[in-house]
Amino acid sequence: MRAHTLGYSGIGVTDEASVSGAVRAHLASQTLNIPMVHGSRFRIDEQLELTFLAPNRKAWGELGQLISLARRRSSKGAYQLTRRDLIGHTDTLLCLWHPHPQALDWTSQIESLSYAFRGRFWIAAHLPESGHQADLAERIDLTAFEWNLPVVATQRPLMHIRQRLKLQHTLTAIRLGAPIIEIADQLERSSERTLMDQHGLKLRYPSAWLHESLNLLDRFDFSLSNLRYEYPQEICPPQYDSEQAFLRDLVFEGAKRRWQQGIPDNITRLIEKELTLIEEMNYACYFLTVHDIVAYARSQNILCQGRGSAANSVVCYCLFITEVDPSRVSVLFERFVSKERNEPPDIDVDFEHHRRDEVIQYIYRKYSKERAALAAAVITYRKRSAIRDVGKALNLPIDLIEALSGSLAWWDKKEAMIERFAELGIDPQGPQIQLLTELVTEILGFPRHLTQHVGGFVISRGPLSELCPIENTAMQDRTCLQWDKDDIDALGLLKVDVLALGMLTAIRGSLELALQYQTTYQPRSGRYQHPPRSIAEIPPEDSLVYDMLCQGDAIGVFQVESRAQLAMLPRLKPRTYYDLVVEVAIVRPGPIQGDMVHPYLRRRDGVDPKEEQPKQISQVLDRTLGVPIFQEQVIQLVMVAAGFSAGEADALRRAMATWKAGNGLFHFHEKIVSGMLERGYSREFAERLCHQIEGFGKYGFPESHAASFALLVYLSAWIKCHLPAAFYCGLLNAQPMGFYTPSQLLQDAKRHGIDIRPIDVNASEWLSTLEDAEGSPCVRLGLHLIKGLRFEAANALVRARRHPFQNLNDFRSRTGLLTRDLEVLASAHAFRSLTDNRFDSFWQLGDQESQLPLFQGAIQAVEDFRPRIPVLGETLVADYQTTGLSLEAHPMNLLRNKSAFRTCRRSSELDRLPRHPDLRIWVAGIVATRQRPGSASGVVFITLEDEDGQINCLVWPSLVETFRHQILASRLLKVRGKVQESHGVIHIIADTLEDASEWLGNLTPSSRDFH
User: What is the pLDDT of residues 721-750, one digit of tens each?
Assistant: First the structure.
């Protein structure tokens, strides 16, 4: 934008061994209609610095391969290039040589470069204001004359305006990992490394050098718009003439398996419609690629589930990419394949999170790292990370930096920083703090680092580096592009999202545990007598499952375990699968901000009558009682009511986020209103529809996603309802995942009557398992819960346990574990069947004499001394420190009789209290979750956990700042407020909060904060 303002004829972006900013620069240049030159800068050795520019498509491919070569041979964040690497990789690239002013000899560099880049070689002249620029210009001119080389003026700008110099110094210090004061000699000395105006350029550089830059620009005939993605082809067997023919056969074979009694006529018509459009858009390879990945996962018994707009098409259902029957939901095909949009469809596939790496490695094996790589993700600066990095650059004390960053919440605005600093007793007007505030404000939103996307794979027919450079990631055996998801979408490249989902791991694990229990203990009654062997055997639409959900009993259940969902379940009262689809989507900012939730619930409860609507609109909204809840409905509405084409409607969906931010997309508003007026709708009705669409913003949830999620909601709820011990055990083994910690899950398991048995070296496996307890399954905690215990050590323990260990010496001699492993096990009291307590375990481990060969197997004399028995408080602290949970007691059990908590009500008492409007009560508990949803207008929700259950607390925005510390920092919290009940869900409306964390001492329970 600055270059455009100054009247430049073009601009080039040349990051060092990178083109990470190329796509965004390309999009900006198109908006401003200013030519863009793409290239990259390299340091070959200490004094050789080159910039390579790509004048055409072939040269762009060479540049990508050169960057990939340099990056792939180095660790993440580094690159390595030699002069020899330039041979064969730079045949069409243009080369700009940057002469080093302090180098005594330029001849050797020019000799090799001018020959290798004959006709494509320039001296890049940069003349900073240093007092020696005249001498440097003269030397460059003489060299150019001697070697008959053109000279091009280059500013090598580091910033667009001079005022950014302080920020540039700060970024340099962050990059070098040192305070500014220690790297003064490496900082840019002049503020001139900026874009100069035309007059300044003419004063600084000879006119011939400036004119040469225009000559250079004329040689460019390349734009990123020229890039054409080519789908991989080996996915199609050789006996087929085309990928489309192969896809058609696969789809109809799958349809026969889906509808074994015969494919319905309407399904056949839908298949033909989708296949026709897929053929017209040449997307067959995309669907075949996803099918191949899913087929591999299923062949390895890896549970997976497709989702996304395209995933819920009938084609994907027939390809077994998804289990969502399109007849059960309304699928808008134009939502994901549109002639007007001309972009690849979107399919996300979730895999068991513990086994996703197997799928990733399959993709690498099939396509090689030359043709497959993960997309990148650009991590940008937010307030806390900005304060930490800028504070270190300014050499502020570490404790001060942590205090400043820790004082901010995610919702704090920029101007709130000064208030937070003042609350800490720090003078916000002090020169260092003012500088910190200024720099932090400037750096917010800047790229901080490039990392790998969670699972977005790009797969190509030819070398992927010819499209975009590839580099190594921090994870071994992973590579990623230098472009992120938005860049890839902007250029229309194929991306398959191979994602990890913990609930799939938990579901598979739960079913396997139930089968193992049945095989081992052969129960004679109950669900464990004949448990389902796969999710396909789980019976649909079980009324007991819906009874459980209607009561809000959904802790651990996929997607409906948050505080908001637990409160919504008793209100919405789901009784069918489609009710779960609505449940998943309705507790989202879009429907909430569009004022759609309460009308839907009132109509569902019969309080409000369903609004009479025109036929075209009622066909779209009937399934949600006349209220738009899904993105697909918004698209359908503007198509049927305002005359939008499918492509225009999808453009509206993409623009919703910008519209919501108030960036002036008034033409959509006018088009909707005018289109509806032309079709006979009232202006009031049209404006109301616009308000609902606007409320969706970027938060509107697609029905296609909700339908996929609702399947997993039902499956996980069925397992919790009928196989609860296997359910909780499966969740423990799938950690980390979900909304609750293992401690909170086990508290809920106990409330459901599940017996939990502790970790024991004579009984525990690596993962938690099911054991029999008087005819019913109970959970035996696994060794995996012990913090710091190596898998190899646990595996050695289990292998050595052919028969029970008799004592610690027996254990030590048979397992051969290292002392550190023994101490970790002792800390977790895993020797409970061999010793009395932790102190006794450590006492015996310290008995070196009994370990000598002479005394092995000897009968030990009874010692007169025994270590004391730890008190319950010591046991609790040790339990939480080593495993994050305790089976002995809840911390509130110990505190309940203390004077500070005697007036606090238990969670089990709340439903029996009178609902008097003036009644105020105290409650107390461990902080389990803290939430501040973007749709809640600043309300903070805190869930406390006591010995009987959970307590939901609500803090109004007017009190959030008053009790800021208590909300953000408390581990143990006391809350006073009034009791509010709605549909059986009880909240404490807080008016006072007290941080009682000091009562916990060294006990450090974990919480889920603001996710």
Answer: 999 999 999 999 998 888 888 998 999 999
